[in-house]
Design a protein that fits this description.
This protein is mostly helical. It has helices spanning 35-48, 52-65, 69-86, and strands spanning 12-14, 20-22.
Length: 90
Amino acid sequence: MPGKQQAGRPLKGRSADGEPVAVSRFPRLTLLIEQSIKDRLEALSLITGKPAYQIIREALEAHLAALPPEDRRLVEGQAKRMQEYRAGKP
């Protein structure tokens, strides 16, 4: 059926800058959440047609945008250090 979204993980996703990327390249994250939160995330994904990773990314970005500027700078600085560490940079 044209336009109908298939169940399961999408074959391709979008990076934060909007570029297409295979979701298999995304790091996997396992977390424990209440069933009611999981149900709402899945329902939101179904209704909006957005994959869960995109909804979570948008929620995180909105949360970060609401932080005071100094806290945002601290978060971004720490995230950059973590990325450099994973890339093998001192």
